[in-house]
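Re: beginner question about structure tokens

> Can someone show what the tokenized structure looks like for a real chain? I only ever see the sequence side.

Sure, here's an example I had lying around. Input first:
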Amino acid sequence: MADRSHEVLAVAILFLVTSWIAVSLRVYVRAGMLKTFGPDDWTMVATLLLFTAYLICQIGGVLYGTGRHAKDLGPDNKRRALRYWYFCELFYISSSCTLKIALGIFFLRFSTKRTHILITRLLMIGTVIFGTAYLFLVMFQCTPISNFWTVSPGSARCVDTKYLSGATYAASGLTAIVDWTFGILPIFLVWNLQLDRRAKAYVAGILAFASIGSIAIIVRIPYVSGLDNSEDYLWSTTDLAIWSTVEPGIGITAGCLATLRPLLQTILWRVGLSSSTPSAAQQLGGRGRSNRHSRFGHHRGSHWLADLRPDNVGTVTSVTGPSRTSRRTRSSSTGTERMILGNGGITKEVVVEYMSEAGTV
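And the corresponding structure tokens:
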């Protein structure tokens, strides 16, 4: 008796654990250490909850027949397994869409040019529109809905599996395009950041790493054909079930790892493997950054850019003396403010050190 249910179960448990650890660490860093918990973090938490619901349904399906041949299952177990599979599809589509939205909002933190912002927003809007249409197609593929598990996914009262497979191929292709775009875009996003070359390479790398789930999507595409085998549905879709777990699982984990450098830097410093101390913003929970925004204001998108892009802030110092003239120069690129008072040349220079998730800049 062929049985691949243990493979599906192992992958589900693996990514259930890794995704919860990754998102929990992200919440700790963003909310606890940096005090910059934003829309992308909330969206990632929502993605985790939807992905967890998907995994619960997948594990339930494994208990009743996912990964096994129809001839080895009783009628009741087959019905229950197909019911779990149906809800797996809905939660998979939902979690994949919210994951792309979370990545898009995350990339908007670093977008300074209108073109980059437009591209990211168009990808997010396209994800919502197509994802919603695909979700409703899958949700109402059978009339009534229960025909999916009481009869079969390919029954006369259901959408032809060929059309459903075609929609799934299209969804996979568009998702891969979105992920690869998110993988290439970081190169342009960090181009004008006021960072040295090494820091730019690091930032581009962690941003691109967040889209690594596209590899799993490409691997998943050949297994979509398993949807056409309605007679032995639970067996023929085993590989599709596995890679449907790997894809968002990797995406969630990678997307969260891209935000954990402050925690890693602190750990390495505490164990003596790094000579650079954690930034003051990390040690104080990022309160200095919040105060800086409220005091000096911000330009478009700066509340998202506080993590990696230096703000145009400085220290204003008043000096009294016998001189009657004064002049002040300011360099936003170096964080230096110089005040020269009077003809005698009383000079005061203040150097501001900017801290970020990418390190000191």
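Each token stands for a local structural state, so reading them left to right follows the chain. The mean pLDDT is 78.
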